[in-house]
Amino acid sequence: MPELPEVEALSGFLTEHLVGRYVARVQPVAISVLKTYDPPLTALEGAEVTAVGRHGKFLDLTVADELHLVIHLARAGWLQWKDKLPAAPPRPGKGPLALRVRLAEPEGAGFDLTEAGTQKRLAVYCVRDPQDVPGVARLGPDPLAAAFTAEAFAGLLAGERRQIKGVLRDQSTIAGIGNAYSDEILHVAKLSPYKLAANLTDEETAVLYTAIGDTLRGAVERSRGVAAGRLKAEKKSGLRVHGRAGEKCPACGDTIREVSFADSALQYCPTCQTGGKPLADRRMSRLLK
Questions:
Q1: Partners of 48 in the beta sheet?
Q2: When you count CB atoms within 10 A of the terminal residue's CB, does the N or C end of the chain come out lower?
Q3: Cβ(168)–Cβ(87) under 8 Å?
């Protein structure tokens, strides 16, 4: 799933390629992709893209300074920029294409939104205010915003009885961190993903706060200027533990382990994060004995 750094990079890429240009046509292809009906997508056609931004994992294209095309790529969605889109209109079918945006100029340029798999969770909203999108309205603070201070972060964790991995992934608590970067952040902070947030010491909380900023800013910097089509590969190449079960930890050389769940998995280093003990590979917050 694209997370904050990749969506931030996409925002920068689209700012360069879209702002100041006019929308010729917006063509939904998959029935499931469009989540709103008023205003209609046709309201965007013939209007200028005036800004591109981000809310957590949501992309926000401002059109004519008054409408917003808000995009959530979900787990298997992606944005594919094309200097020359096919001339023929897209046809609904079983392929990955979900929506196409064609520019008035340069002629034929634009982007496709695609989604692999069968779950079809990619979502597009045409709204007058991004806060009209339920997922945006419930977002917690952005971890790269100036207001996300160490004190504010400590306040979020106070009395929080959930495991720290789940807290980091909860978009209503902190916006933009998903499965991959929560693994990376906890590895840098040398914390077990199963540790209860409320049980963190002041020192651990401070270390975790620094790890969040350093990890996300580092990923954003690596992705800056990378073309949309190469962002997935760039993300994977920069990950230290996530998706690397069975490989050696880059910090200590121990074998990276994995805990599998019904629809996801986490990776961690026992030596760096759990005192050398492997975590139980089931939905329980305790160590194997």
A1: 22
A2: C
A3: no
Q: How far, in Å, CA of 11 to CA of 60, rounded?
A: 8
241 vs 183: CA distance, rounded Å: 7
Spatial distance between the Cα atoms of 232 and 75, rounded to a whole number of angstroms: 12
d(CA 163, CA 151): 20
Q: Does residue 56 contact residue 74 with C-beta atoms inside 8 Å?
A: no
- Its pTM surpasses 0.90: yes
282 — pLDDT class (breaks 50, 70, 90): low
Q: What is the pLDDT of residues 132-144, one digit of tens each?
A: 999 999 999 999 9
* Contact between 75 and 115 (Cβ < 8 Å): no
Among 25, 8, 121, smallest CA distance to 73 is for: 121
